């Protein structure tokens, strides 16, 4: 006979505990354990498995029951269809896979609903049935937002030739059972769920957004999507740490996890892939927020190269790779005497620990006294530059600011800086150099021993030490403006 027991499940991490604690033993968050009833069958372990004797030894020859050998599995190339936005398709690995689940997370107000409404509109012009489930807004609110974006067919037009969005269906509903019945009845090619944290399953007593609700709602939607071959685009809320709210199992259930990033006070937005069962991860798509919604940015390198005509000390240009996309980014550094006992270190778009490491290498291996100076490092446009290939550009920008020198605007710097002051090899060098040549750069400083094509129209300078890169990138020249270098040290 089945028995029941009481367990306590954490609403933050999903860990279970046999008794209640004020703090979750797994994640350490207070007040997140919720009581749940779990059924337990004690007779399950006592049953004898078919084909096995009482002593546990097999009585039948080994043979597969339902498993297939690797040679018996038929290779099937996944068919895809375009969303109407090349940047969105790029992040997905080339297009939307039928029957897949795509989870999109991002900060409030970053533009998740705007992006998916525009994608739904594009799909509705080519596919017969698209469903937009609005669990946070009414149908009138969705239509008003579509009118602001000037989505065709969203407003009443007297012109009969205006394209009507008869293939785009709106369902303002939060009840999971009603949404499942609509999916089974309409059978759309693509369905948008906005958002998963606001749906609720009436059979569960927990509140919407809890671990149990998010897990059960996602599992039910996944079963219907896989059975009826429906593509689901699911919006997920994020926590204050930036992770998708709810249990981690939510990210394991879906096929693709995308993060919509960007500063709400800046115009550009980045759509980043962190998990993709049908393509490469860490791909990015770049959009720009305009008055009529989100517009694609076909050449992101031009977006992040700001004020290139103005000579300024402490700037250097690097070529960062996000997945398979090279992006030329300008790094800006500022080094100045400190007014406090401990100098300040500040970064924007660059890893803080990476800045500390490069400052230590420059002081120890090159002999530049930076321990008593404030250091600020930022990437133009706020693009996150995390890969080690940007180390050389960071180091040159810091040295140029310290010496009040100007790095040639037509020079790019690519290389990883080691703790011994070496310049190490990096990957995808050919892609980086081709992007630099396409944008009109004339010279590149790269690690020694790096392989690259010779017909790019670039002057390639190979270096093995950071000091060699400094000599090549910052030749002797008059100081820029009024320099306070003498108050710090003499060259």
Q: Can you give a write-up of this model?
A:
By secondary structure, this protein is of the alpha/beta class. The protein folds into three domains: 1-46, no CATH class; 86-156 and 164-298, Rossmann fold, CATH 3.40.50.300; 303-487, 2-Layer Sandwich (Ribosomal Protein S5, domain 2), CATH 3.30.230.10. The chain contains eleven helices and 21 strands. The chain has helices spanning 86-92, 112-124, 139-148, 176-186, 211-228, 249-253, 300-303, 352-366, 391-403, 429-438, 466-473; strands at residues 3-10, 16-17, 33-40, 101-106, 130-134, 168-171, 190-194, 231-236, 256-261, 268-276, 284-290, 293-296, 315-322, 325-337, 345-348, 373-379, 411-413, 416-417, 423-424, 443-447, 459-463. The strands form five sheets. Strands 6-5-7-8-4-9-10-11-12 form a nine-stranded mixed β-sheet, with helices on both faces. The chain has a four-stranded mixed β-sheet with strand order 13-14-16-15. Helix 4 (176-186) packs parallel to helix 5 (211-228), helix 8 (352-366) packs across helix 9 and helix 9 (391-403) packs across helix 11. The longest helix has 18 residues, at 211-228. The radius of gyration is 28 Å and the shape is globular.
Please, what is the average pLDDT? Answer: 84
Strand content: 15-25%
The number of distinct helices, counting runs of at least 4 residues, comes to 11
Kindly state the percentage of residues in helix.
10-25%
Count of structural domains: 3
- Which architecture name of the largest domain does CATH use? 3-Layer(aba) Sandwich
Main sheet, how many strands, which sense, barrel? 9 strands, mixed
The outline comes out as globular
Strand order of the largest sheet: 6-5-7-8-4-9-10-11-12
Structural class: alpha/beta
For this structure, the CATH topology of the largest domain is Rossmann fold
CATH superfamily of the largest domain: P-loop containing nucleotide triphosphate hydrolases
N-to-C terminal Cα separation, in Å? 85 Å
Unreliable runs, pLDDT <50, ≥5 residues? Answer: 41-48, 155-164, 482-491
CATH C-level of the largest domain = Alpha Beta
What value does the Rg take, in angstroms? 28 Å
In total, the number of strands is: 21
């Amino acid at each position: 006979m089945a028995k029941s027991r009481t367990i306590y499940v954490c609403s933050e991490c999903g860990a279970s505990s046999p008794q209640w604690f004020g703090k979750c033993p797994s994640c350490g968050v207070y007040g997140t354990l919720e009581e749940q009833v779990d059924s337990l069958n004690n007779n399950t372990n006592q049953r004898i498995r078919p084909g096995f004797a009482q002593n546990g030894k097999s009585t039948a020859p080994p043979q597969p029951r339902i498993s297939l050998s690797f040679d018996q599995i038929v290779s099937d190339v996944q068919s895809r269809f375009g969303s109407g936005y090349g940047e969105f398709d790029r992040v997905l690995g080339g297009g939307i896979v039928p029957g897949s689940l795509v989870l999109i997370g991002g900060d409030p107000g970053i533009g998740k609903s705007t992006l998916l409404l525009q994608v739904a509109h594009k799909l509705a012009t080519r596919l017969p049935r698209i469903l937009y489930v609005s669990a946070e807004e009414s149908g009138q609110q969705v239509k008003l937002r579509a009118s602001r974006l000037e989505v065709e067919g969203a407003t009443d037009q007297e012109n009969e030739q205006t394209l009507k969005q008869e293939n785009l269906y709106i369902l303002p509903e939060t009840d999971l059972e009603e949404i499942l019945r609509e999916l089974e009845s309409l059978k759309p090619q693509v369905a948008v769920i906005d958002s998963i944290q606001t749906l609720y399953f009436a059979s569960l007593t927990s509140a919407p957004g809890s671990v149990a609700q998010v897990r059960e709602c996602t599992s039910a939607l996944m079963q219907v999507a896989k059975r009826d071959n429906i593509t689901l685009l699911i919006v997920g809320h994020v926590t204050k740490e930036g992770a998708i709210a709810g249990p981690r199992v939510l990210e394991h259930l879906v096929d693709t996890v995308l993060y919509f990033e960007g500063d709400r006070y800046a115009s550009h937005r980045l759509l980043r892939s962190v998990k993709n069962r049908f393509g490469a991860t860490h791909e990015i798509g770049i959009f720009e927020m305009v008055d009529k919604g989100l517009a694609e940015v076909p050449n992101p390198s031009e977006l992040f190269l700001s004020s290139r005509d103005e000579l300024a000390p402490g700037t250097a240009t690097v070529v960062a790779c996000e997945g398979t996309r090279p992006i030329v980014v300008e790094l800006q550094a500022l080094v100045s005497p400190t007014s406090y006992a401990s100098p300040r270190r500040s970064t924007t778009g660059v890893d803080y620990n990476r800045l500390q490491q490069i400052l230590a290498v420059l002081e120890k291996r090159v002999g530049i006294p930076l321990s008593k100076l404030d250091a600020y490092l930022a990437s133009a446009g706020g693009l996150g530059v995390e890969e080690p290939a940007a180390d050389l550009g960071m180091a040159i920008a810091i040295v140029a600011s310290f010496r009040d020198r100007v790095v040639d605007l037509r020079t790019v710097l690519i290389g990883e800086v080691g703790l011994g002051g070496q310049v190490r090899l990096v990957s995808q060098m050919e892609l980086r150099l081709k992007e630099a040549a396409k944008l009109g750069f004339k010279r590149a400083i790269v690690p020694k021993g790096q392989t690259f094509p010779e017909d790019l129209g670039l002057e390639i300078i190979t270096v093995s030490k950071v000091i060699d890169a400094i000599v090549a990138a910052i030749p002797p020249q008059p100081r820029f403006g009024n320099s306070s270098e003498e108050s710090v040290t003499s060259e």
